[in-house]
Amino acid sequence: MPELPEVETVKNGIQPHLINQAIQSVTIRNKQLRWPIPDHLSNTLDGQTLNNIRRRSKYLLLDFNHGSVIIHLGMSGKLTIVNQKNTPKKHDHVDIVFDNGSILRYNDPRRFGAILWSTAPEQHPRLANLGPEPLSRQFTAQHLYKHCQGKSAAIKTIIMNAKLVVGVGNIYANEALFRSHIRPITAAKTLNLAQAQQLVKTIKSTLRQAIKAGGTTLKDFTQADGNPGYFQQKLWVYGRDGEPCQNCQTTIQRITQNQRSSFFCPTCQD
DNA sequence: CTACGAACCTGCCTGC
DNA sequence: TGCAGGCAGGTTCGTA
Question: Full-prediction pTM beyond 0.85?
Answer without folding.
Answer: yes
